[in-house]
Amino acid sequence: MLTSVDRLLFVRQVPIFKELRDDFLVRLASVMDELSFPSNYTIFRQGEEGRSLYIVISGKVKAHLGNRKLAEFVQGESFGEMAVFDSQPRSASATTLEVTECLELTQEQLYDAIEETPEIAVNIIGILSRRIRELNQSLNVIGVKN
Questions:
Q1: Cα–Cα distances in Å, from 95 out to 36, 67, 118?
Q2: Quick one: how many helices (H) and strands (E) in the chain?
């Protein structure tokens, strides 16, 4: 478990929270739950309702469709954002690759944070756009091979 100071220092380094005020980050960090998952644990499954996003404190998580790995998330990276924003079922599953600690930010907490500090939404959009570009690039590489 992170102390309050360690949690603030960690959250300050997370890309979705970059360049946000410390007083805001202190409040946000204090409301997030810290969760522990064993290795090979499915945090959520494709098709489930998504009401939280997660930030990896330690460990590794893979996003996948069945046995096909889509992405891997490590310390400081977030996952599960899409379902929180569009209220659609999860588009993929997320499973730990090793013992993993995460912070959980609920949809309600995120919306409250965005209302107070809209830069969070801009940061998340930037991260999601980068992931789409990377996925498109990997699909283009696969398409060239076929």
A1: 13, 11, 30
A2: 5, 8
Q: Are 55 and 14 in contact (CB under 8 A)?
A: yes
What angle separates helix 119-145 from helix 107-116, to the nearest 10 degrees?
120
pLDDT tens for each residue of 53-112? 999 999 999 999 999 998 999 999 999 988 888 888 999 999 999 999 999 999 999 899
Pairing of strands 100-106, 52-58: antiparallel
* Beta bridge pairs of residue 106: 52
The owner of tokens 């013992």 is 99
7 vs 65: CA distance, rounded Å: 31
Other Cβ atoms closer than 10 A to 62: 16
Per-residue pLDDT reduced to its tens digit, 40-54: 999 999 999 999 999
Give Cα 43 distance to the centre of its chain. 12
Question: Tokens at residue 59, please?
Answer: 């460990």
Are the C-beta atoms of 61 and 43 separated by less than 8 Å? Answer: yes
